[in-house]
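Morning!

As promised:
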Amino acid sequence: MLNVLLVDDDSEFSDVVCHIVEFLGHNINTAANLAEAEQWFENNTFDHVFLDFMLPDGSGLHLLEHLKKIGQSPRVTLISGHPSVKGKLAEMCEANVGHLVKPLQREDIERVLNPKKANTKKKSAPSIKRHFGTLIGESDVMHKLYTMIERVAATSANVMLMGESGAGKEVVAQAIHNATACDGPLVATNCGAFSKELIGSELFGHEKGAFTGAVARKEGVFEQAAGGTLFLDEVTEMPIDMQPNLLRVLENKRVTRVGGTKEQAVNCRVISATNRTLDDLAQNNVIREDIYFRLAVFPIDIPALRERKEDIPLLANAFLEQLNEENGTDFKWQASQLKELESHDWPGNVRELRHAIHRAFIMSDPKGSAITLPESLESPFSRVNKETQTSQVMAGQTIEEVEKELIHATLDKVQGNKTIAAQMLGISTKTLYNRLNAYGGIGEYK
Amino acid sequence: MNNHESLRQLVHDARAPLNRISMNAELVKLVLENDMPKEKALAALDKIIANCQQCSEQLQQISDTHTSD
């Protein structure tokens, strides 16, 4: 049952529509003008509004603006008398606004009230809270992260984000930017993608004619991010001999365009990101120590998805909702599927989860509402990681045990194909059979 | 131009009774299909007749306005 509001100054028409809508099993209230309609919205919410285009105290569009202002988003059906208005309305109206042309028929009303099911779900969408407008998750580790974001947002300190690939470094950068009271934009750039020759021009800009091909003046990312945030992704992939340039900007807070003479002040926060661990940074000499301390005034560790498995259902719901919204579908998770997602390790983190859901979404029957998960959630990368994790040999194991484990792991990898497994193991197929028999039969590898 | 505007307005006004007629006819259908009290249907039919009358008058007005020019 829906709560419907009819806004029309034709009382006789309103009466009949009330009868019909009530007969269709919905609640209906009426307003004869904009003022009355706005009054209804003061203390009530409606699922659907039938809105006359021309009202005594203004156009129906004014009510749409008012609804936006007060943050309500019922489905709206504009009713107009001119068929010509329909086209114009279609152009300017958003997804949740439909239109009908007088004279109306019952089927029209039924039709616009029925696809409503999708809309009630849309209303439940905000139940998934996006912290700082971007981050999803209510686990303890995420709440710690939110506290850190809040603290650092109040300062102008440079932040270094560390986390595995796919953990959401750019999303956290966006969150910090959103939480900061600044006027400038967030400018994101990937340091790993710069060519050695152009890195200076990318970061600091260049003057016209500074080098061959510099046909116009160009602003560097530091300038573009003036008053805002500069996000340097994969900062540790920047060639180490280019890093002193960066150090100078970070220290002096001034940039000079390539080929230019005038220095310009820089006033943006720099958020850098790396998927390397602290040990890795220290051992592999990928970042100069002086730069590290400039960039990582406030280092933040972003937890891997497997450290916050309780957030997986929330994320899965949020991603599916988004896909439903984009494609006008109505897929839902089953509790068992959410459990399955939760039990997986997601070495590719949120990015991998998101891609797995997208893949499942594409595979699912668009006519139904059940989503079909693939038989195996593993990606090529997760398999590699798992192998390196599980193939650890422990002291105290017998050679026979290790050999058995190795043979089984190899057979698993090649789906039980003994010829290929034997080749990989460097033994004859006959030896492989002998070993399997010695372990108590070929068993599952028949 | 002005003439054209007034014609549009008159046509717009004439659509209002048509709209009521359409919805009242739908109501009559509902009543008949669902064995509801026939008084409801009769009241709706009366409204249809009255609105036909009104629509006819409005069409006459359009005709008068635009033939007298």
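The interface with chain B takes residues 10, 12-13, 16-17, 19-20, 23, 54, 81-82, 102-106 of chain A (CB under 8 Å).

Hope this helps with the figure draft.
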